[in-house]
Amino acid sequence: MLHKLSNTELLDKTKAIASQERKVQVELLWHLLEIQNRRLYLEIGFPSLYDYVVKELGYGHGAAYRRIQAMRLIESVPDVAEKIEEGSINLSTASQVQNFIKSERKNGGSVSYKQRVEMINAIENKSARDVEKHLINLKPENVIRPEKIRMVTPEIIEMRLMIPDDLKEKMDKLRQIFSHRIPDMTYLALMEYLVNQALKKVEKKHKSSSPALRLKAPEGHLLSKRNIPSTLRHAVWLRDGGVCSYQDPQTGRKCGGRNFVQVDHIHPWSKGGENKLENLQLLCAEHNRHKNNRTPS
């Protein structure tokens, strides 16, 4: 029992456990990298590695993000793994460096291997705040904080994000314009209003023009052209619920992803597949590419 340990024994044992935990963390990162390279998360019905880490491994959103970012840093600079294991760099600071590299690439630049190594050596044994200061000194515009979402209550979610000044100015302008409708409009109220307006437009666009179409697609609908008519696309969307219908053949787990969903021919068009409802399905972009890569030519 722990209460029987001396103070020295308790401290030594805790330190040993922390060291072992770091070793396990690094081992996990290497495993995630191999899963990414094999794209195994697609095989078992997840649209991204991030979804796999959150939903299958049970990590929180922030924890999953940090591990994936650290994994990507290890991929480009393998020596980082040893530094994480010895404790001179942790998942948070590794994630900060990877965010910096990602931002530089997004802004049209690049960070050489030598620059990455120098950056990593410079942040060893520093706190997350000190690392942030160091990266800001290198290039302020590259130091971006990832969006944070935290469940406060079952009905309330806290969301944190960084926005550019010009976007805030536009939001303030909208608050003034709508002030006659909603006096003292908060940013939350503005966001809710804009989201509701956008949803109305999207739902109106996808809304069926006739009640019959909501129940079934046109029977025997077959075209000689590859383009799928909008009525048939809409029927597929309604049937599949607007989500990716990929299903893991072993577990039966469905992807259910909503991002970049596309209408796909189950039996490829190039091999004689028809534009019929029974030959069409919704797939997210990742599973669509995954299917195409696996389909024999």
UniProtKB/TrEMBL annotation:
Pfam families: HNH (PF01844). CDD domains: HNHc. Signal peptide: none annotated. Residues 231-289 form the HNH nuclease domain. GO terms for molecular function: endonuclease activity; nucleic acid binding; zinc ion binding. This is HNH nuclease domain-containing protein. It comes from Bdellovibrio bacteriovorus. The lineage of its organism: Bacteria, Pseudomonadati, Bdellovibrionota, Bdellovibrionia, Bdellovibrionales.
